[in-house]
Design goal:
With 219 residues, the chain is mainly alpha-helical. It has one domain. It has seven helices and no strands. Helix 4 runs antiparallel to helix 5. The two termini are 32 Å apart.
Length: 219
């Protein structure tokens, strides 16, 4: 029980996020209306994705410096889980766009940058599967992972702020925090970020455990 306290916390936070996210008061703003509640899902999933990709970057650098297969495994599986949350972020963002901008997808620099980011990380997985040698695969994948992380920063954080964009916080548009992330929403938003991140870590530990079991059975 002591070792699993964070899993219990994860479940409680996500239950709280879903219940409070739909039932608590939210700012009444034009265009957004009730869709603003998607902040507890779409935005938090992107936060989780970025956290996981950052962890993957760290372990890729550690693998290059120490050449430990354990670090390569963590980097690979963290990227896998990060892509999963990135896809969830794209789906929830597309639903949000439909009800606010009137289309599932628009030619917006932030949206296109997000799609390019996902393709860049998917290419990371393809690259890993294309190299049979374990040592070489780890080194090449680690170098590419660093490149992919830089591209992510450029496409979803830097370039959208320098260009015209419908997305809040980009292209001169104010971010949600300045308009409508009031104290009521913060009471749900911050626990939601923690809850979704813990879920990502939980999935990561399961994937690593499955990999280790496969390796032990093959030996």
């Amino acid at each position: 029980m002591k070792k699993n306290w964070w899993k219990i916390l994860c479940v409680l936070l996500l239950i709280y996020t879903i219940v409070a996210g739909f039932l608590t008061e939210a700012p009444r703003l034009p265009i957004l209306h009730e869709t603003i509640r998607n902040q507890y899902f779409h935005v938090c999933m992107w936060f989780t994705m970025i956290i996981l990709f950052t962890a993957s970057l760290i372990y890729s650098i550690r693998h290059l410096s120490g050449h430990k297969q354990e670090h390569d495994l963590i980097a690979s599986e963290t990227t896998n889980v990060g892509i999963f949350f990135g896809i969830l972020g794209l789906i929830t963002g597309s639903i949000w766009a439909k009800f606010t901008w009137g289309a599932w997808w628009t030619n917006d620099v932030k949206l296109n940058g997000s799609a390019i980011t996902m393709l860049t990380y998917c290419a990371y997985l393809v690259l890993r599967n294309a190299i049979p040698d374990e040592q070489k695969r780890g080194k090449v994948a680690a170098v590419y992972n660093i490149f992919a992380y830089v591209m992510m920063l450029v496409f979803i954080m830097i370039y959208p702020r320098m260009s015209d964009s419908l997305h809040p916080g980009n292209g001169g548009n104010p971010g949600f925090a300045k308009l409508d992330l009031d104290n009521t929403m913060r009471m749900v938003f911050y626990p939601a970020v923690i809850g979704w991140t813990l879920l990502g870590v939980w999935i990561l530990t399961i994937r690593i455990r499955i990999h280790n079991l496969k390796m032990s059975t093959e030996q």
